[in-house]
Design brief:
The complex is a heterodimer of chains A (188) and B (98). Chain A has 188 residues and is an alpha+beta fold. Chain A is built from five helices and ten strands. The mean pLDDT of chain B is 93. The chains are: A alpha+beta (188), B mainly beta (98).
Chain lengths: 188, 98
């Protein structure tokens, strides 16, 4: 069988995003990584310890925050729910082996994608697209928030280098991509 | 536009992120088979139409997706408190809303 070409949900917009670069904004879709939805009880210390041992960092328990690093991260989605993004495909099985009792690991890789926003204008683009208060005095490095972005849902992440990641549904990717191209036009 | 405090996200968020889910603290009858049709219909369909303080459910649908309760005044729209599912509301403020 011939090799199957893996395409990210926004591969058809990569060139359009490239034409924007050089101005105040740099948009690109991140390479494909695994997205796992993890459910479990945050007050169950054996669950939290097993997850920490498998991932190499603790699951965040503070609302609207994330932990981890570039290769692998865990985002707080709710008091008993996390999103894990990782470029190590073995994490899913490792979690299933390590976790015991009442938990759920769901692979949602095919349903989501990540868009990276860099540059001085990225904050303004977020502010005009969303109702959430992204002012740096409130939305700090290490924060992530689920809110509406251009009427669609998005998980917005503020990374250590000050850039933002938008984690969005695949089904909304084309719409949000086009929205971003339009929103970024005045800064490019 | 209401500003609603989500007890799970622990933040004030815009109403646009939430969806309204009706009156709170309605418990399902333990033995539905023993109920008369009128009582079952009352449980399923009939809700208070309060003028004043109202305990109601909201879902943070664009955020953490959790349900919680809000005590809101149906005339002034003032929100007295929001509290997680399974907890008891505080005593209401005396008198009417501001």
């Amino acid at each position: 069988m011939s090799n199957i070409l893996v395409e990210t949900p926004l591969h058809h917009m990569a060139d359009a995003f490239m034409t924007l670069s050089g101005g105040g904004i740099n948009i690109h879709e991140a390479d494909m990584v695994s997205h796992l939805n993890l459910r479990g009880c945050a007050s169950d210390s054996s669950f939290m310890k097993a997850a920490q041992k498998t991932l190499g960092f603790a699951l965040p328990v503070v609302p609207n925050s994330f932990s981890g690093h570039d290769e692998s991260a865990a985002y707080w989605l709710g008091p008993d729910e996390w999103l894990i993004t990782t470029n190590d495909i073995a994490v899913e099985d490792a979690l299933r082996v390590a976790l015991k009792g009442h938990f759920a690991v769901t692979n949602i890789t095919g349903g989501q994608t990540i868009i990276s926003l860099r540059g001085g204008a990225s904050l303004e683009i977020l502010q005009k697209s969303s109702i959430y208060d992204f002012h740096p005095s409130k939305f700090k490095v290490g924060n992530c928030v689920q809110t509406t972005f251009a009427k669609a849902g998005a998980l917005v992440v503020k990374k250590a280098d000050g850039s933002f990641n938008l984690i969005i549904r695949r089904s909304f990717a084309d719409y949000i991509g086009r929205w971003l191209l339009d929103a970024a036009r005045e800064y490019s | 536009m209401l500003k609603i405090h989500c007890p799970y996200c622990d933040e004030q968020r815009e109403e646009e992120e939430f969806s309204y889910s009706g009156e709170a603290h309605i418990s399902r009858p333990l033995d539905p088979g023993a109920l008369s049709d009128a009582d079952w219909a009352d449980y399923l369909f009939f809700r208070k139409n309060t003028r004043g303080w109202h305990h109601e459910m909201w879902q943070h649908s664009a955020g953490c997706r959790r349900y919680f309760n809000v005590t809101r005044h149906t005339v002034t729209y003032e929100i007295f408190e929001s509290y997680p599912m399974g907890t008891t509301p505080k005593a209401l403020p005396k008198g009417d809303a501001r």
